[in-house]
Amino acid sequence: MPSDANTVHLVAAALCGLGDSCCVNTLKPCPYEDDARAAIEALQDAAPAPRENPKRTVGIRKLPLELIPRIALVQEAAVLGLGADCPAKAYGRHNWRTDPIDAETYVGAIERHLTLWASGENADDQSGVSHLAHIRATCAILLDAIDAGTFLDGRIRSPETIRILKAYDASSMPVVKAA
Question: Where does the record place the dATP/dGTP diphosphohydrolase N-terminal domain (predicted)?
Fold first, then answer.
């Protein structure tokens, strides 16, 4: 590992022993500079390599929950808390795990929040929380209901829509020129 010039000069001055009258403080070449570099490199080579933390070695193989941005998690929790704890709504905590939910209701909610957000409105008027957090919370409820077996899959299947979306590639589309 290379050393900076100041470190080399300090070590060279220590090797030379002349203090302020050392050539390091002048423009003359220092005869101890090569010895100083060699001493620094020897010290660096002798330094023990940092040990790998065994917890990290195991931890990096685990599900990386730390990658979920905290702001997204907090805002999603705020939305879920509003639905669970708001007396006006009184949905109850985890109500979707006991009361079946249908896809259409939740897809509609996702589409409304996404449309409002994409149109420039950042936060829901009722809750004051981001529309994106509402979408996350709604998706979380759907995933949990599927896992709990309370999801009523009434999605209107459209193989043609899926085919078109998967096949679409703007780079291969013909260019249409205005008349």
Answer: 53-153
Coil, strand or helix at 93: coil
The per-residue pLDDT for range 137-149, each reduced to its tens digit, is 999 999 999 999 9
Q: Are 65 and 44 in contact (CB under 8 A)?
A: no
Task: Give the C-alpha separation, 126 to 80, whole Å.
Answer: 14
Element (H, E) at 151: strand 151-152
Per-residue pLDDT tens digits for 102-119: 999 999 999 999 999 999
Is the CA virtual torsion 14, 16, 21, 26 positive or negative?
A: negative
- Cα-flanking dihedrals φ and ψ of residue 152, to 5°? -95, 105
The reply to whether 57 falls in a domain is no
Identity (one letter) of the amino acid at 136? R
Contact 133, 72 (CB under 8 A): yes
Is the whole-model pTM more than 0.90?
no
Domain range holding 25? 5-46
The 10 Å Cβ neighbour count of residue 15 is 17
Q: What is the crossing angle of helices 131-148 and 103-118, to 10°? A: 160
Whether 110 is in a domain gets the answer yes
52 is a domain residue? no
Does 16 map to a domain? yes
DSSP letter string over 100-129?
-EEHHHHHHHHHHHHHHHHTT--B-TTT-S
